[in-house]
TrEMBL record:
InterPro entries: UPF0319. Belongs to the UPF0319 family. It comes from the Bacteria. The keyword Transferase does not apply. Residues 1-18 form the signal peptide. This is DUF2057 domain-containing protein. It comes from Vibrio japonicus.
Length: 220
């Protein structure tokens, strides 16, 4: 029962600290931490700390009969989240030409704000395949992108990333220290279970989350 309480407390803590990622009109959220976003055009929960999102601009540009939808290439962004509301706005693009200019150098100026203030980010263009549909099978392309950079996710949870960005309780991990040796098998299992619970919770519907919280209360 004590182990269950620890895991549930970890889950509740994650839920309470989760922020909301909201795209402006014309922005599509494709992936969050290696998993397909629950809503491409709506709000998604996003964890505190390091997050990786894949976004794309899908915006109608031009006016009248000359208007059409400009779809950019997808971009992989790294964020450090510490607030509650994260908003993503596409680069200025009022015409097709303006949109093409905004993306031509591979470093489009997304306007990302955390609780109303600018949030810094790093970005890379996701490399597609050759051919007519370069981004078919995007999940595999993203996995390849991450593996080349030493970034790994399990059910939406970060399990490894470059040492310069790796944080444990706000402390940079020393690459010379093998942290796996410092954790007992029991602690490793508890951590794995907690991450799995968090992932299941985020995948659940609103009603399923309510039912789960009621069940948690009954266990106390």
């Amino acid at each position: 029962m004590k182990k269950i309480s620890i895991l549930l407390a970890s889950l509740v803590s994650f839920y309470l600290s989760a922020a909301e990622l909201t795209p402006a009109k014309g922005v599509s959220i494709l992936y969050i931490n290696g998993q397909e976003a629950e809503s491409k055009l709506g709000t998604n929960p996003i964890a505190d700390g390091y997050n990786q999102i894949v976004i794309r601009m899908d915006k109608e540009v031009g006016r009248g009969s000359g208007g059409n939808v400009f779809t950019s290439k997808p971009y992989v962004l790294d964020l450090e989240v510490s607030g509650e509301i994260i908003q993503v706005v596409h680069p200025v693009a009022r015409s097709k030409k303006e949109a093409e200019i905004a993306f031509e150098d591979g470093q489009p100026q997304w306007d990302i704000r955390q609780d109303g203030k600018p949030l810094q980010y790093k970005q890379e263009e996701l490399q597609g395949k050759s051919g007519l549909f370069p981004y078919a099978g995007m999940a595999a392309l993203l996995e390849k992108h991450n593996s080349q950079r030493g970034v790994y996710f399990n059910n939406g949870q970060l399990i490894d990333k470059p040492v310069e960005a790796k944080m444990i309780s706000g402390t940079v991990v020393d690459p010379a220290v093998d942290t796996t040796q410092a954790m007992s098998p029991t602690k490793v299992m508890q951590s794995s279970n907690a991450e799995q619970l968090k992932a299941w919770y985020l995948k659940s519907s609103v009603e399923e989350r309510k039912e789960f919280r009621r069940w948690m209360i009954d266990q106390e």
